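Handoff note, outgoing to incoming analyst
You'll be picking up this chain. Sequence as last confirmed:
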Amino acid sequence: MGEARKHEKYDALINACHALAPIRTAVVHPCDDSSLAGALDAAAARLIAPILVGPEGRIRALAASLHRDLSGVQIVDTPHSHAAAEKAVEMVRAGHIDALMKGSLHTDELMAEVVRKDTGLRTARRLSHVFIMDVPTYPKPLFITDAAVNINPSLEDKADIVQNAIDLAHALGIDRPKVAILSAVETITSKIPSTIDAAALCKMAERGQITGALLDGPLALDNAINRDAAAVKHIVSAVAGDADILVVPDMEAGNLLAKELSFLANADAAGIVLGARVPIILTSRADNLRTRMASCAVAALYAHARRAASLEVGKLAD
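Most recent structure output, in case you need it:
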């Protein structure tokens, strides 16, 4: 498969942002090569309008070493990574920021400020992470959730995880995403609790507790993404073999699945955290430029969709 074809799904996401204004993004502690260069590249592509939050001296010295121009880029000086996370969250609460982007600090350090009770960015929805994967052997973007935030989610947590992913799919132009609730098998058994959760989530969708998508489960991975595998098992389903969203039983399963696709199937894995006041772009040092750009594009599309929805609600209220 050619390089251009491999990236066509991410290219489509990035191209969808060309008509949109860059989102105001607080880049938290961008003090290594990849996090600073990634933010500046996304700014050059007009995906984000970055505000660099961290030690100004270190950031400027790093930019100089990389021969990158910081002209016109706002820097909010903070002494260290913890202060940068605290300041960035404060800026969101003040209404100045549309998205957060992790720099070179640890994910836990940033998320601790995001989830803090009195000063954080929690909403009524549980926070969850979604990978938007460009898998060369799959015909469309494949969403995997949650592989990074919720370790062992309850049924109620999974309902929020599913709804977060559905809302993201809507923002990316998928009107009726197909959601596969994964387990090891496609039959319901008390011996495997995730099969019972899957059945309950499907019933919750039938009763309007989860909206905006087609759900089916439990489904094993093969019959969730491969029509022939579903046919062999005699599974009659609008979701089986054509899933947009894969909901994993727990973080261990999700993390393994995402990394297997990345390192064995040459997939790219863009990703954001949802459920907070603004989307949070969690980048990894292993991410390539295309993946970082795609993560910013996903956050931009989601932020604009939320803003449009809020304006629509405001009009209806008037």
